[in-house]
Design goal:
- The chain is α/β, with parallel strands linked by helices.
- It contains 30 helices and 10 strands.
- A 6-stranded parallel sheet has the order 3-2-1-4-5-6, sandwiched between helices. Strands 7-10-8-9 form a 4-stranded antiparallel sheet, covered by helices on one side.
- Helix 24 links the parallel strand 5 and strand 6.
- Helix 25 packs antiparallel against helix 26.
- It is elongated, with a radius of gyration of 36 Å.
- About 2% of the residues have low confidence.
């Protein structure tokens, strides 16, 4: 029996793998690879995919997951922290782009509704491509990175009202005023229901699910919540995408939001690929070839329009000129949400076939240029500043910006040069205590819900989730951490975490705690900088105490232990004797010990006599250092002092002599 859609899935995913592998050689984004896959496999290409409607259904699931992740990543609290950049910068950029597009569209003879909708499409940039490149280049925390993040957040949120407003713009909602009021009433009802769920139902359900420690149950619960919320909004006459966005907002306020993101991302990546493929399938190659130069000019025009609006937006916020140009070279492309919006525009007759093909072509070209433009943005910016602005103008602008510019308080988890502690057991807790005492900033990742809850009650900077996922590691900025301590007992998980950390950072110093000796070398080979095995550390502690009993100086013991550790425990690990200890650290063991001897009742030559009469020094070569008599300690020893029954003598001498003396104190 042949499974429906199986051939299409194999063709799409298989072809995507080949194309994206080729694109990776030129550092092209995966999204562009999916679009080209759709072009090649679609009806205007080689017609490899026949069930285009079914592929569109899969793409709808991808959109649901995409909107959910957007909602969960940009919580209401997070938006409040960067409201200045998001609200002012985002509204100026989106509003300015729409305004200029409408003016140009009207001058070109375009209808107002279509011009406004075209402004919607052009105003959106690519969150997926831009943030991926910024993260790879380590520029998320830079000035232009923070600006891009704020504006992209605004675009990702404003796309939801755009989706809702598009049918009204097309006049398909009947009476505009009634439609708008009805829309607000529906939204208010849905939001009220979701607020109640988020406060009184979802947290309790998630808490119970997490306590089971079942990853499968947690994933299933999150997916049910996503689709149930999408179904609720759809039943109310709103879009599925809006419901998914609301579901993300609900979980974003939960302490389990990071782990939910980690678990949903693989589903999103798979299904969203079908969305971009389905968009690419709609591109007409013959139209693209036939209008090639016209499309090139339009692409240049769109890029220049967006860059001018972005530059003006950043100038209004009084940023330096270089930041202005680098931001413009970052956000000039047309983004993935514009594809989603364009499909809604087609359904509402705001885009005809010719306009849609033009839009697709311009979008794909602008996205394809993004990696190159961002890669050389600093050089382009320096050139543009010198070529376009006279020196006097540059100086006046810089002075004006210095007077009024203040950096935004952008802190998602804004940590740098900090300590990341993975695992909050006894070892992790002790590391955190030491970090607090030393005033070292730190963050913790813990996957045990009970441990997490206890740490959360104490107000510690802890995140719930699986540290082997790069999304969670990115959230705690492990790539900017000075040290990462992996203090978990799961060897397989430890190795996975090391690999993931090394994928994003070669500079983070990784210290690993292991249980067994045979894990040292494989762990070091994976990229750990230091490995501390419990077996050997226990041995060192025992040996330290042994040496202490042999009166070896503390500094010499400490130096000896340090040499053992610095050579990765070779002295303890090797079965033969070929580990050579430096001559300066050869331990000199004296033949003298301290001992405590209890005095019992007996008739002998010591009890009841003075220290000098008993002959402790002359007969046994033992020196009395102190006596405990009852609850008192006598430290000033007089040779005429008597030794009494039930005394505790603290003596110093050779072990054999002390053993002989002890026979006189034993009970007969």
């Amino acid at each position: 029996m042949e499974l429906p859609l199986l051939k299409e899935i194999v063709v799409i995913l298989g072809l995507s793998v080949l194309i994206i592998l080729a694109f990776q050689r030129f550092r092209m984004p995966a999204i562009l690879g999916f679009l080209i896959t759709g072009v090649v496999a679609g009806p205007h290409g080689f017609s490899l995919v026949k069930a285009s409607h079914e592929v569109e259904l899969l793409s709808e699931i991808g959109v649901i997951f995409l909107l959910f992740v957007i909602g969960i990543e940009f919580s209401l609290k997070g938006l409040a922290r960067i409201r200045n950049t998001v609200l002012i910068g985002g509204s100026l950029q989106v509003g300015g782009t729409i305004l200029f597009t409408v003016i140009i569209g009207l001058l070109s003879g375009l209808e107002l509704e279509k011009a406004v909708f075209l402004g919607f499409l052009i105003s959106l940039s690519s969150t997926a491509i831009v943030l991926k490149i910024l993260q790879e280049k380590g520029q998320i925390a830079s000035a232009h990175g923070r600006i891009a993040m704020g504006i992209l957040i605004f675009q990702d949120i404003i796309v939801v009202p755009m989706i809702l407003f598009t049918p009204i713009l097309a006049g398909n909602g009947g009476n505009t005023l009634v439609t708008v009021l009805l829309l607000f009433a529906k939204v208010a009802f849905v939001v009220s229901a979701l607020v109640l769920l988020s406060r009184y139902v979802v947290p309790k359900v998630l808490h119970r699910v997490v306590r089971t420690k079942s990853r499968e149950l947690f994933i299933l619960t999150v997916i049910v919540l996503i689709f149930a919320t999408a179904w609720l909004t759809s039943s109310a006459g709103l879009s599925l995408a809006l419901g998914a966005f609301f579901a993300g907002l609900i979980i974003s306020e939960s302490e389990y939001s990071h782990q939910a993101t980690v678990n949903i991302l693989p589903f999103r990546e798979i299904f969203i690929s079908f969305f971009f493929v389905s968009v690419g399938m709609l591109l007409d190659i013959s139209y693209f070839v036939g209008h090639f130069w016209q499309l090139i000019l339009l692409t240049i025009g769109v890029i220049l329009l967006k860059m001018i609006v972005i530059a003006l937006t950043i100038l209004v916020k009084k940023y330096p000129l270089k930041t202005v140009f680098m931001s413009a070279f970052t956000l000039f492309q047309v983004g993935e949400f514009a594809f989603l919006l364009s499909i809604i525009g087609i359904k509402n007759s705001l885009l005809d076939e010719s306009m849609y093909q033009t839009f697709l072509s311009v979008s794909i070209l602008s996205m394809g240029l993004t990696p190159f433009m961002m890669g050389y943005s600093e050089r382009f910016s320096d050139w543009a500043i010198k070529a376009m602005l006279p020196e006097g103008v540059r100086k006046r602008l810089d002075r004006l910006q210095k007077l009024k510019h203040k950096p935004d308080s952008f802190t998602v988890e804004d940590m740098h040069d900090h300590l990341v502690i993975i695992g909050f057991g006894v070892n992790g807790q002790n590391v955190a205590k030491a970090a607090r005492q030393a005033k070292i900033p730190y963050s913790i990742i813990e996957f045990d819900p009970l441990v997490y809850q206890e740490a959360k009650k104490e107000g510690l900077p802890i995140v719930f989730g699986d540290a082997s996922d790069p999304i969670l590691l990115s959230h705690v900025h492990v790539h900017e951490a000075r040290v990462a301590v992996i203090a978990i007992s799961d060897a397989a998980a430890t190795k996975m975490i090391i690999r993931k950390i090394r994928e994003v950072s070669e500079t983070t110093h990784i210290i690993v705690r292991t249980r067994y000796v045979n894990e040292i070398v494989p762990t070091l080979d994976l990229g750990a900088d230091e490995v501390i095995p419990e077996e050997f550390e226990t041995s060192i502690e025992i040996f330290t105490r042994v040496l202490n009993r042999y009166l070896v100086p503390f500094e010499q013991i400490k130096e000896f232990a340090a040499v053992i550790r610095s050579h990765n425990y070779e002295l303890l690990a090797k079965t033969n004797n070929d580990f050579i200890v430096p001559e300066s650290l050869r331990l000199q063991i004296p033949e003298l010990v301290f001992a405590s001897l209890p005095v019992y009742q007996d008739h002998n030559k010591v009890v009841g006599k003075s220290i000098s009469e008993s002959g402790l020094r002359s007969n046994f070569q033992v020196t009395v250092l102190a006596i405990r008599r009852g609850n008192k300690y006598i430290t000033e020893i007089d040779p005429e002092m008597n030794i009494e029954t039930d005394d505790m003598l603290y003596v110093f001498g050779k072990p054999d002599n002390i053993a002989k003396l002890n026979k006189y104190f034993s009970v007969s």
